[in-house]
Every structure is written in C-alpha cells, then in structure tokens.
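hi!! sorry for the late reply, been swamped w classes. u asked for the two structures so here they r. pasted raw, havent cleaned anything up. first the sequence of the first protein and right below it the tokens
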Amino acid sequence: MNLIKDSTLDMFHTRRGARGIEVSAFIAGASIVVLSAVMAKSAGSAPILASVESNRDVRVSPVAFTPEQTSALQAEPAQPQYPADTRWFDGRPVRPAKTIEMLVTAYSPHVASCGEFADGQTATLHSVSTNAGQLVAADTRVLPYGSMLTIDGYASDEIVPVLDCGGAIKGARLDLLFPTHSEALAWGVRRIEVVVWEYADGKAAPNPRRVR
C-alpha cells in the first residue's frame, strides 16, 4: 500500500515537475516572442526615423538663370525724365517751343459765322466736335495743321490743335472755335501771346488729316 502511495506521489511530483517545466518553457517562449516583437518593431521603425531625419537634410537647389535672363529680370524700363514745364497732349509729352504775339478772334460752327461753309467739318475734315469742340483756325503758313497751342482765356488754358483755316485768317492771326455765335462775339478781338508746343518724345508728329 505504501509502495503504491509512494509510487503515486512520485508520479504526481514527476507530472508536477513536467508541468512546471512546460510552464517555464511557455513563459520563456512568450518572453522571446514579446522581445522579438519589440526588437522587430524597433528595427522596423528605424527606416522611418531615418527617412524623417533625411528629409530634414533636404536642400532645395536655387533656380539657375543664364546671364541674359538675370539681366532681363533685374533690368527696369528706363523712365524718361522731362522738364517741369512738360505737359501732355493726346497721350504724348509736349514742351513749349516758342511764343508768338497774335491777333485772336473767334467764330462758331453756325451759319452766322461760317455762312455756306457751316457743314460741321473743319478744313482738315475733322468734326467741329473734335477735342470737345476746342480747336483753332490759323494761317497754315505760320502755324501748320496739327500745331498745338495754349491761348490765355481759351479752353481753360489747355492745349488745343490747329485744325481749321479761314479766308480772313492771314499771318499772325487766330480764330478760336466756340460752340455758339454769342460766345464767339463775347470773345471779341484780342491781341495776346500764344504759346506753341512741340512733342518732347523725339517721335514724329502725326498727320493731322488722318486723326479724326
């Protein structure tokens, strides 16, 4: 009976020892798996960190331009410098060229002033409404068509063009266009100095017969 009991106890201890070995082996195996996973995770994250670090070191290379491109980028259009007395007419700079003393009269586009020639057009075939109806008749031997003038007391002293002529307008004489005959009469006859202007941009004057 004692032999059976001792044998049974030995078997129990043997099994218990075996189970203990199995548990230990399981724990050891699990530890290895966990450690391997940690190591694998650590190993797997290295390239990502390396990638991030490498991105920090990226430098963008500057765009290379040829000398011609650099000059074009740096160059600024030259702005012409004009004297203080420069004015503008028809989008172009003009400057005073000379002053002439002239006998200045006035007319209107109506029959009372122009008679049979009251057709609403000037000698250069411009409408009498050109330049807001502010234009001048002159002797073209003295002031050719297209001449630019300022006349004290007329057109708010703005520059006006010579676009007309007249049978009685000879020599140093001007005739100023007014919208009504009564305004022309109100001007009367005056002897004043007239400023003649010229283009200051070095370009040729336009053909006054082509400008409408």
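now the second protein. again sequence first, tokens right under
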Amino acid sequence: MAQRYVRVKTIQEQIYYGSLQPNRSVAVFDAPPWLGGQSTDIELQPESYQLLAPCAPSKIVAVGKNYANHAAEMGTPVPTEPLIFLKPPTTIIADGQPIYYPWQSERVDYEGELALVIGARCRHLTPEQTHSKIWGYTIANDVTARDLQGKDGQWTRAKGFDTFCPLGPWIVRELSAGAKLQTFLNDNSVPCQSATVEDMIFSPEFLVSYISQVMTLLPGDIILTGTPEGIGAMLPGDRVRIEIEGIGSLENQVVVYS
C-alpha cells in the first residue's frame, strides 16, 4: 500500500501532519511533508485524533471542462486552453464532514475530481519543470450550485459556498496515469461518473505550467483537475462517494443548515 500522508487534530486541539500507519495510528511529522517534515517520536493512536483535510492551501485553483465528454454534456465546445477559476479555502471540509445545502440554491451537484498538491513555490514553469512541483495527489468534490452558476454568468458564488470542496482523505505521492475515477451516490453500486485520469484534455503537468504563468503557486496549494461526464444533483440526506484508484475514497453527506 502506498504511503498515506494525513493532517489530523488531536483531542487537545493540536494539529499535526503525519503518515498513516496500517493500524490507523499516525506517525507525526515536525512540519508538512512537502516542506521537508520528518518523523518525530510522537505516534497518535487511532482513537486520539480526528482526520482533517490533508492540507490547508492558500488557494484552490480549479479547472473547468477538462474532460471532453463533460464539456459535451454541458453543451459547450472542448476548451482550447484551460478554463481556470478559484474556490476559497473556506470551502474545504474533510472526509466524513457534511456538505451544507445552501438555501439560495435549488440544484446542487457533485463533481468528482483528482486534486494535485503543490510541493514548492513555483511560477513561470514549463510543463517539463512541473513534475518535481507536483508533490502528491488526493481526491476532491467540486460541489457546485448549478442553478446559480447559470444565473450569475460567472462561477464564484456557485462554487464558493462553505463546505463546497470536500478534500482527502489523504495524499499519496504517486498515481498511475490510467487510474480510474468513479463517483457513487448513496448505495447505488453503479457509478454516476466513471473515467480514467488520462482522459483529461490537459494533463496535470500542463495545468500546473499554465496556472504558474498566471499566478505564483505556493507549497500546499491545491489544483482541481476537472470532472468527467455524469454530474448530477444531490439532495439533503444523500451521500456521495468519490473513489480514485491508488488513493482511496472520499465520502460526505449532504445536510441542511439547522
């Protein structure tokens, strides 16, 4: 099994980065691993911590319509260059935490995606220079208020509600180019979305290069690489699970604000 890098909060409210062990204990690091963090002599037992989203980025840069079949289902042409937008860091929640259905929307969709974790400050990169800057990979759900996306004519509100970026549950360093991405709703064994990450129009390396020509990327920043076809609505009470081969699964339930 690939090494799984996590971020956790203890009962004492201390936040640590570390490595998840097979018995679910966490070997604590002295810093985020992409900043050179090393193992300490602290080991957290499974009942002593809460799993958080695996990083706390300065920004989330997302890519729209990066699968041709998703562009088609949206009724738009395939982009000739990456379509990028930002989600605020306040959208991030961890595996198992609730997605809150906003009262302003009548249509909230799931979008299963591969997320890249940036490992070093970078700008103006060529695609060939990006491999060493992509520190690892995790899973994301680019939750979207679809009706507001159409109504507003731009995507900030539709993509930016609190809890609209489930992320995790951990980071892995390597990922097969043919890794399968699937999204499941509730107990349905048939995936709503199913594709391989190599089906992307623009590769992870190209995306990092393109974005770095626009803005400086910082260690721990997240890039969402786009969603395949099969997007659909979620209702309060629904559970959405996104699986990526070689990483694991990310599951969250939709709830209403109480």
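hope this helps!! also noticed smth abt the second:
Residues 204-212 form the longest helix (9 residues).
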